[in-house]
Amino acid sequence: MRIVVCVKEVLDPDAVNSFAVAGRLTIGEDGTSLTQSAIPRLMNGYDEQALEAALRLRDAGASGTIAVVSIGADPANILRHAAALGADEITHVAADPADRADRAGLDGHATAALLVAWIRSTGGADLVLCGRQASDDDQGVVPALIGEQLGVPVVTIARALALEAGGDAVRVTRVTPDGDEVVLAPLPAVVTISSELGTPRYPTAARKLQARRAKPAVVTLDALGVAAAAGAPRVRLLRQWVPALHGHCELLAGAPAEAADALVARLIQDGAI
Amino acid sequence: MAKVLVCGWDTQADGLAPGVEETLTLGRKLAAALGAELGLVVLGSAPPDAARVAGRHGASTLETLADPKLAAGGSDARVEALAQLCQAHAPRALLMPQTFDARLVAPRVAGRLGVPIVMNGIDVDVENGALRVTATAYGGDTHALYEIAGDGTALVCVSTTALRAEPAPEPRTPVVEEFPVDLRTVTERIRVLEPAKTEGPRLEEANTIVAGGRGLGAAEHFAWIEQLAEALGGMAGASRPLVDDGWVDASRQVGLTGRITRPALYIAVGISGASQHMAGCSAAKTIVAINRDADAAIFRHARYGIVGDCHEILPELIRAARAHRAGGS
Ligand SMILES: Cc1cc2nc3c(=O)[nH]c(=O)nc-3n(C[C@H](O)[C@H](O)[C@H](O)COP(=O)(O)OP(=O)(O)OC[C@H]3O[C@@H](n4cnc5c(N)ncnc54)[C@H](O)[C@@H]3O)c2cc1C
User: Fold this and answer.
1) Which of A62, B20, B104, B154 has its CA 20 to 30 A from that of B260?
2) For chain B, where do the domains classified as CATH 3.40.50.620 start and end?
3) What is the DSSP letter of A93?
4) Is A104 helix (H, G, I), strand (E, B) or coil?
5) Closest ligand 1 atom, CA of B311?
6) How far is it between the farthest Cα atoms of chain B?
7) What is the mean pLDDT of residues A156-170?
């Protein structure tokens, strides 16, 4: 069994949120990307959970390899993190150098095309795991595009998965608005992982040390036989900005009982309760 | 004539999917900018008011795609049906409200047809003949303007919470047609072993929501959230950390990746107001914030706020709400 996990490097979303709240989130001179020198970069949270899902399958007895792949400017750090967590192979698909980590230069189709070309070049995958979306652009389209390009089923927003006895299907628990749904998908398949999977493991100190020396395999477009045109974006980020927020909050002061009474009175007056 | 299509298949017994009218409003704007015709598409049999809604929003056609395989709700049938529709009409844009199902089906249709797609759309426009979509990013911390190259079909999933549906100045009487889909070759590859079953009312439909966050401090304090919700005749919600830590069930999570709610009243207790949380509640008519940090982002969204310790305020608020309920106060 070959499990491919696709991971993306993003700006730490908690840090981005803090900058936003402090009114210090700014856009660079290019007009498209966040001024990011002070914001740490890390593996997209859902992607880390996708890797966790792969590791749990292995813990549950799945044999074979877990291959982690990333496209981006320089994903070596997150790939080493993947190695420390237990990935057997780590690969950097090096696209256009103009491709920044926020992927302003590659749209979903181009990203999926490169990942699919790489997956095919490595003999295919039985299971492709991705995070449900990246916390930077929140688009969440790449997994479905990979599924369509490979011609395999796509199951989204999983909280748990288990391989069927024969290893030819995966049983997935999805988090839907109507509660959990359990489905069976024949392999190969693409599955996207949601936060409900739970906290990913931490690498052991020994593994971390070992992974420091791990070097991701670097694959170029030429090597994949992908024409540069395949990477030409049709969805192009023109501008990004921080929306203004005009708050007008009335603060209710006083002791807790007073403030509570004042709030209820306001809500009654407004007809809100 | 060029076409802009809006698709809402999440039909409910009593009407169209929530968000279809807001999406039609954006669709009408786009159609006007392109000099195109607006059409509404419904997968499955159209609810009785579909033609009226389509007409009210200026759609000149209402197309239904009826096939028993669509009624079953599988995504393979839906993807194939929408792909056939796009191939037949070659619309400039296919817009749909970003429901849970649309998040999967729309990008798959885009993948099948090899056409561009943008999710989380909040606005659409045309500049020099090119389609432009404004979408949220970083949970809403930023807005992003995307330009779509070419003049082929583009798919846009619309995040409708912050949008207002505005009927067309001139209503129309749409031509109602059935689009002939051919789903003979479709066999759903994914088998549902255990269907989801809603237990009780859904947050999406709640009129009042009291939501608790990490500021509650301990799992047992969520009981206060439930008590206040009950006293106000509403439902209890939560921020993601409470779900992550197993304090509450995932069905309680409000936000970008949880429930997108639209209550009249949303009371956020011990919630900082991160963009990803606000994406699921900012459309509330009235937001109340209770937080001990006067600088918390939530106060920028709130109409009323109490700065203080929720452990002291919640019991008092429950008391006051119950008194109001009992006809006192
Ligand atoms: C891609 C992505 C998707 C996400 N999706 C969601 C989502 O769908 N929903 C969601 O909620 N989050 C989501 N998040 C997480 C989100 O970014 C925030 O981390 C989360 O909403 C914070 O939850 P919180 O406000 O409860 O906790 P915190 O941010 O820790 O805030 C706790 C608040 O409680 C206050 N407080 C502490 N003690 C007290 C007290 N005694 N009395 C009163 N106030 C107190 C503090 O001042 C603080 O403001 C997502 C994040 C990412 C990156």
Assistant:
1) B154
2) 3-178
3) E
4) coil
5) 41
6) 65
7) 96
Q: How far apart are CA B81 and CA B101, in angstroms?
A: 14
Going by pLDDT thresholds of 50, 70 and 90, the confidence category of residue A220 is confident
Tell me: the pLDDT tens digits for A38-77?
899 999 999 999 999 999 999 999 999 999 999 988 899 9
Which of A10, A11, A135, A139 to mutate to probe the B interface, most B CBs <10 Å? A139
| Stretch (H or E) spanning A186 | strand A179-186
Nearest to A241 among B119, B143, B303 (CB): B143
The reply to whether A223 touches chain B by the CB within 8 Å rule is no
Over B203-254, what HEC string results?
A: HHHCCEEEEECHHHCCHHHHHHHHHHHHHCCCEEEECHHHHHCCCCCHHHEE
Q: pTM of the full predicted structure?
A: 0.96
Within 6 Å (CB) of ligand 1, which residues are found? Answer: A 13, 17, 45, 135; B 139, 213-215, 217, 239-241, 253-258, 270-272, 274, 276-277, 280, 291-293, 296, 309-311
- For ligand 1, what atom is nearest to the CA of residue B271? 25
Interface residue B207 vs chain A (CB under 8 A):
no
- Which CATH fold topology does B203-328 show? Rossmann fold (3.40.50)
**At A262, which amino acid appears?**
A
Coil, strand, or helix at residue B15? strand
CB atoms near residue B18 (< 10 Å): 18
Q: Pick the range with the lowest mean pLDDT from B40-44, B179-183, B252-256.
A: B40-44
Q: Does the beta-carbon distance from A177 to B300 stay under 8 Å?
A: no
What are the structural domains of chain A? 2-6+45-228 (3.40.50.620)
Residues A93-120 have pLDDT tens digits of: 987 655 444 444 789 999 999 999 999 9
Q: Which of B193, B256, B303 sits opposite A250 (nearest CB)?
A: B303
CATH T-level topology, domain B3-178: Rossmann fold (3.40.50)
Model pLDDT for residues B256-307, shown as the tens digit of each residue: 999 999 999 999 999 999 999 999 999 999 999 999 999 999 999 999 999 9
Give the position of tokens 């730490």. Answer: A12
Task: Kindly report, as residue ranges, where domains of CATH 3.40.50.1220 are found in chain B.
Answer: 203-328
Angstrom CA distances, B250 to B185, B243, B255, B259, stand at: 36, 6, 11, 9
Helix (H) or strand (E) holding A147: helix A142-150
